[in-house]
Amino acid sequence: MRTAIFKQEWRESWANKRLIWIPIALMLLASMQPLTLYFLPDILASGGNLPDGAVIDIPTPTPEEVLISVSEQLRQIGLLVVLLSAMHTFSHERTNGTLAWLKSLQIPTSRIVISKWAHYALLTVGGILLAQTAAAYYTIILFDSFDWLDFLISTTLLICHFIVQLSIFFFIAAILESGVVAVVLTLGLHFIISLVIGWIDLDWMPWMLGPLSSQVLLTEVNLIWPLVTGLLVVIVSLFLASKRLRFMSDST
């Protein structure tokens, strides 16, 4: 009974093919970057309408630069893919009465929230690991090898970044009627705080986990405080989501 909701999430994930298309989408996003960078001169030459004799000289990016572009792609479009996949987690279940039914069974709210969050967190971790593996493969094949320890640290930070944003989304989705609005607010909050960090030296904030996943490939960075504050944001977000979860839709 304790893991029934968690198992049901995986069954639904398989039924609607979310278990398949999320990892594939993230892998495609990650694979496109090294392929695009490698064939970019040919793409420009074939479609640039250049005069005869013109030569396109684009410096070959280093493996680290390729992996940084992959990280940026996943942090932007990849995060959107993950949040959109979770968009109807609470809103749809309020509308069809599933949440109210779970409440009538006297299931603790924390179990509902954490079970659903854990499902998406594990799905996201698996997708990112596959995406980063694909990116590493094409980077080595098309460009050169790189420092594997830095790459593993970068991947870990990228996963932490996704988990923090997913946790914030779960809190917002738990208290709002619309999943779409929850996605927009999560991305908007991420964008605004990222801008603030750019203006003010706030290297300790969890929103630095994303940029640090790129920076660690080039230089040494301080990881302790962003990881600590990121863990606090996850715990607080899930706690508040459990306390403030709305079970009924206003339209019912």
Automatic annotation (TrEMBL):
Key words of the record: Membrane, Transmembrane, Transmembrane helix
Pfam families recorded: ABC2_membrane_5
UniProt protein name: ABC transporter permease
Highest taxon in the source lineage: Bacteria
Residues annotated as signal peptide: none
InterPro entries for this protein: ABC2_memb-like (IPR025699)
Transmembrane regions listed in the UniProt entry: 120-140, 152-173, 180-202, 222-241
